[in-house]
Here is the input.
Amino acid sequence: MKFKILQENFLRLIENVYHAIPSRAALPILESIKIETKGEEIFLSSTNLNFSLKVKGRAEVEEEGALCVKGKELRDVTSRLKNERITIEKRDERGLFIITSHAEYNFFIQPAEDFPNIEELENNESIEINSNDVIEGVEKIAFCVAKNDTRQFLNNVLMDISGNKLTFVGSDSHKLGLYEVNVENQGIEGQFLLDPKSFDFLKNQKNEIIKIIFSETKVQFNFKDGYEIVSLVDDKYPDYRAVIPSEMPHRLKITKADLLEVLRRLNIFTSPPNYPVQFDLEQGNILIKAVSGEIGEAVERISGFYEGDKIEVGYNCNYLIDIVRHIDEDVVEIGITGRESATVIKGEDAENYLYLLMPIRI
Here is the structure.
């Protein structure tokens, strides 16, 4: 193997597959990037067995071949080189050299045959969508996803396709995020559970039309210079729409900036594990309170519009701050059904996303 390429172009290819390299690999080969040369192109691949990435780029290929090299070290060295034409060359069965105008770097290699096989999906149903819509959808709901819950579905992102709607859902059972985007759909119906980290590659593919291909066990994302294949999580997501309230007798509107400032101040007066704040609501009077047995207590009156009977309801302050931060609009709408039912939170007049937050007892 031997090829020449600009440093910045080689680094971009490495970055595009780096997301699939696990921080703690179950097998040593999973720490590697597979490099292949063919014709006038080079191909880089990585996998953590849950999802796999493969990208391609143009290079001046002098000798074809394939091998595996440690991904982290390859990225660290390449990112520190100046932008010039570099030579990548395999000189023997153990070494891959990066040659610059002033230095040589020799990496130990492993056979390409040791790398797990990555099989593309073919002749399956698919949709096309702008990558920005997927990026926004995942960013809107990913913070709601659980980290290490025993219920697997809570640790993953749901993609739900029905009609011409693609819906992204994430929840940890305390809060839920939902984001919808319109798509041109030729009859695909289904729910697909994916690892949240499998969407990280899209950060390098902004504003690009991508194709999403579906099978019973995998989803493939095709983009301009490569693809990602994701193994689906084998679990069933509950009916999330059933928990979205249809009627909200208590409605509150508050400016986002004002609400965030108040919550951040009151959060100082909350304590683990629930970090409670209490909303005391009646028409013409909106109070938010926090009490800590270790610190003290605080009460703030905030301007806003409230419609409904008098009610007192509590929330986890940290969860509420996280939700409000992800709202785009200047005004936050809060729809309260009661002290023990889910509260709906969204931006004023927002139609394609919302959040649910369960109240807590204070």
Summary: The chain has a mean pLDDT of 95. The chain has three domains: 2-114, 126-242, 244-357.
